[in-house]
Amino acid sequence: MSQDNKRPLTLRDVSEASGVSEMTVSRVLRNRGDVSQATREKVLAAAKDLGYVPNKIAGALASNRVNLVAVIIPSLSNMVFPEVLTGINQVLEDTELQPVVGVTDYLPEKEERVLYEMLSWRPSGVIIAGLEHSEASRAMLEAAGIPVVEIMDTDGKPVDAMVGISHRRAGREMAAAILKAGYRRIGFMGTKMPLDHRARKRFEGFTETLARNGIEIEDRAFYSGGSALAKGREMTQAMLERSPDLDFLYYSNDMIGAGGLLYLLDQKIDVPGQIGLAGFNGVELLQGLPRQLATMDACRKEIGQMAARIIAARLAEPAQPVENHVTLTPKISFGDTLKRR
Amino acid sequence: MSQDNKRPLTLRDVSEASGVSEMTVSRVLRNRGDVSQATREKVLAAAKDLGYVPNKIAGALASNRVNLVAVIIPSLSNMVFPEVLTGINQVLEDTELQPVVGVTDYLPEKEERVLYEMLSWRPSGVIIAGLEHSEASRAMLEAAGIPVVEIMDTDGKPVDAMVGISHRRAGREMAAAILKAGYRRIGFMGTKMPLDHRARKRFEGFTETLARNGIEIEDRAFYSGGSALAKGREMTQAMLERSPDLDFLYYSNDMIGAGGLLYLLDQKIDVPGQIGLAGFNGVELLQGLPRQLATMDACRKEIGQMAARIIAARLAEPAQPVENHVTLTPKISFGDTLKRR
DNA sequence: GTGAAAGCGCTAACAG
DNA sequence: CTGTTAGCGCTTTCAC
User: Fold this and answer.
1) Which of A250, B86, B243, B290 has its CA 20 to 30 A from that of A217?
2) SS3 B320
3) A51 contact residues in B (CB cutoff 8 A)
4) Left if phi > 0, otherwise alpha if psi is -120 to 50, otherwise beta: which for B211?
């Protein structure tokens, strides 16, 4: 069976064990070129018997091919990026490509490090969240000479391809729906993340539409850390004590929105009659709350899928031009917390 | 500035641009060995100017060192593994090591494929969830000749090291607390995942303690897919309609437990007086619910941290023996849904 | 259908 | 402190 010394097995070991040249062993193991059924079986038997695991490092160096796709995202902990990954995985599973993920914690310097690190493995493509990168990062992406898809956001100019939604527009549309429903005294709650450009753009779009209608946000609050649900609850309480005449609360994400919703229900406040609520993301997780929070789907899975498809298509047919700039359009779901009219 | 042809830059390019030998360039870029300040600066300037990104593939092959740690987990979508990853990341960030994650979807065959794939990159260590693996997987882990830490579970025999909690014991302790509080007519709800061995062990431990006290579960139900919160709500309703005299509901995870809790509150059922509830995991996310669900912390972050520390220590001091079998002991938090006595 | 030779881009091990 | 030489384990290319 398997060896006992510490040296990992090489092709040569399989070659010797099977009496077939290294070259032919290599061909069998990769299913490349014609090999007679007889030798093929001999080789496979020997490889399996020894417990041989090919060395991709050597293979990649020799062939100048690496079936890795670097996926660079800000965070794993907020439920939105895992869904993007799921979409990417689904698509890449039908290809030779393998995703490798790196996390930046929303820090440009860390993004730069992670990108450098990943590029040093010479991946076949890059999927990276956002359109805002340090100059050095952009330079690396441009110089890499591989397909690059920037995801989540389409408010800006990509290095190469992009797939996402317009967060600015998402903010505008939510503002429009809120105004249309008759709400006028609006409070905002979000994360204290100056580097979350997508949240910022939503906020900008939101206030822009309000302003165009002569309205300004009456109160705002930001949080960081802790359980989003609990923060939503606390902040909502604090805000309503401070500004009791608000008639709408817009949250930068569904989790804090849900916290707010639970608080209002506790307080027996009429939602959406007295106060309306809306979040952002379309988190499936929250189905099952006593009321459905109004929200807007960020199209996370689709974004992952399309990004992966673009990479795969580019690599399969480098010549064929591929749809490069994809803007998905999320729709509002009114749920039970935003009057419909 | 950067090049425009498609060939990636090599050390040789930097060498020529700086007039320093490849070897010395290599030393500068890796901070190895003594290099005069003057040449160091020349080299760094040239590298930066060209936009050189080292080729780790070649480096790894030549040095026979790969600073990658394979992390193999069943899922990214249920909030528990991202937390484990966070713990791993925290610790590895202070080292040269880089985690690379693979996802198995709770499928042994997929675990085997992923493991094979990862081992073919010759990582320096493996962190893998669970103690149950296919024979082939175990063989690969044993033959790899690198530190292997099996995490989450300690009810079984690891290939090498393990860090986790005893899920069987967790189940037993929860059963004991429930009985002690005086509940007797108990229902169980969980996921339909025959391959989630940890959930199974918790369930076994749970029923074992009940049986030892002459009690059997009166009703049970399993779900798959969908929003756990919504499922918890639906299943709880269905179960109580079917078995209206239950006085306790034990859930295999906090999310469905929270769904159940919300349902009972809606129905104005007295919790924990008429019916008690408990889940499992200690999900921080749920703080902010109107009541705190009784639960048991799975020590996710600590597990990730300790596993990473074991790998790091082993690689730093291969001789030094390292604490190999770590069993953490979660405590029950009673919250507001399990009578305390 | 199979094999031999060369070399991928880097670093270990020496030599100066 | 700096340079030279020889591979790492595989695949490409070409020959048989």
Assistant:
1) B290
2) coil
3) 139-140, 143
4) alpha
